[in-house]
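Lecture notes, continued. The same structure-token format from the folding unit now serves as the input rather than the output. Read the line below as a description of shape only.
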């Protein structure tokens, strides 16, 4: 069976101030053409179809168009909801849409009930694990403490239990939206940290033939059977080095996986430039970036006059201008934001306690801080679902 694995469309999202609807429309056209040209048997979309719980009308219309075009091809599509989606909204009408070969899996309680498709070698069971917010699904999976690893492990127990009751030789595909250990993150994914731990080990998914992951925006291979497709478009300058693509996966009669990356259309390349303003304006080696979307980081010791207008004269598609004067690490002028870069909320809070009190928090206090952050995230998740 030949699968096309994609995820993280983020329909409705902009790139800085640039409306990406045109590029997203081009991607949907490319997706449909790929399904036809590559004789794809099934499409899997591993979450974050939309960029927010209540997407703009234009994004909903594009999603509707995508579903109609895929259904017209007669190629089954399996989709799950991600942490950016409203699972309830995305799942509306799922029972009816099933009849058209579009299978929306947004209900955590149904993780052990697969979509079963068949080829010349027998059945392939597709299990959809939508994004599982630990605080909201803890009771459903009867885990003692909310955490990504515990709820995913419980969900996979249901998958393996169902698979064990099926005919010998039944192959299996799991769609999941999660941060798996070993994955490379970027700046454009929403934080899903709970209990201080966001990542789950790939071993959680043991026992199935292929795991189609969503959430991280870089196309990557965790193992031969566990892969992220990444987002089809770049949504932050941290993705400047990404090759945006989808996985074309062949699952043979014995469940052996072979996969090929298929490139997605690039609306405009990204470039991250760093140097003084005069260096960026004069360097001939930068000519290749003059048509790119540019993030320019200026290292001038003193902020130059009219920097955006001057940089845009050479790089007209400059979207971000950052000031980061080159200074010694111990220089008191180094900004607070730079000192906090890359640190989690938990680490920042612990550092604040140590700064104010003169001693780091002990184990009990660290647990109190962690529980407080978990409670805030759980409240935000409940509000998002209720919107």
């Amino acid at each position: 069976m030949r699968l096309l694995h994609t995820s993280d469309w983020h329909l409705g999202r902009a790139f800085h101030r640039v409306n990406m609807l045109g590029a997203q429309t081009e991607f949907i056209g490319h997706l449909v053409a790929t399904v036809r040209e590559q004789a794809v048997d099934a499409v899997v979309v591993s979450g974050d179809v939309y960029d927010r719980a209540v997407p703009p009308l234009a994004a909903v219309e594009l999603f509707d168009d995508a579903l109609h075009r895929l259904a017209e091809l007669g190629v089954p599509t399996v989709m799950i909801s991600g942490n950016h989606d409203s699972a309830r909204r995305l799942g509306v009408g799922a029972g009816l849409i099933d009849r058209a070969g579009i299978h929306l899996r947004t209900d955590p309680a149904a993780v052990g009930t697969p979509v079963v498709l068949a080829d010349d070698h027998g059945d392939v069971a597709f299990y959809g694990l939508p994004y599982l917010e630990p605080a909201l699904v803890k009771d459903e999976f009867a885990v003692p403490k909310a955490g990504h690893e515990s709820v995913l492990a419980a969900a996979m127990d249901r998958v393996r239990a169902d698979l064990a009751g099926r005919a010998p030789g039944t192959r299996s595909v799991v769609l999941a939206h999660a941060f798996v250990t070993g994955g490379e993150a970027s700046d454009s994914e929403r934080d899903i940290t709970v209990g201080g731990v966001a990542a789950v080990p790939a071993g959680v998914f043991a026992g199935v033939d292929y795991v189609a992951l969503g959430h991280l925006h870089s196309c990557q291979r965790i193992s031969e059977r566990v892969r992220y497709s990444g987002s089809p478009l770049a949504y932050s300058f941290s993705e400047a080095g990404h090759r945006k693509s989808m996985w074309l996966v062949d699952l043979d009669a014995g469940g052996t996986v072979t996969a090929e990356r298929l490139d997605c259309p690039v609306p405009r390349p990204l470039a991250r430039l760093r140097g003084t303003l005069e260096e960026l304006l004069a360097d001939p080696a930068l000519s290749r970036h003059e048509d790119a979307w540019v993030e320019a980081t200026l290292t001038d010791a003193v902020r130059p006059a009219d920097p955006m207008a001057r940089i845009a004269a050479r790089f007209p598609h400059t979207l971000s201008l950052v000031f980061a004067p080159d200074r010694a690490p111990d220089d008191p002028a180094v900004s607070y934001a730079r000192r906090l870069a890359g640190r989690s909320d938990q680490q920042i809070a612990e550092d604040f306690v140590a700064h104010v009190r003169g001693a780091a928090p002990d184990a009990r206090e660290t647990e109190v801080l962690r529980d407080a952050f978990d409670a805030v995230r759980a409240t935000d998740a409940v509000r998002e679902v209720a919107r």
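Point for the exam: The two ends are 39 Å apart (CA to CA).
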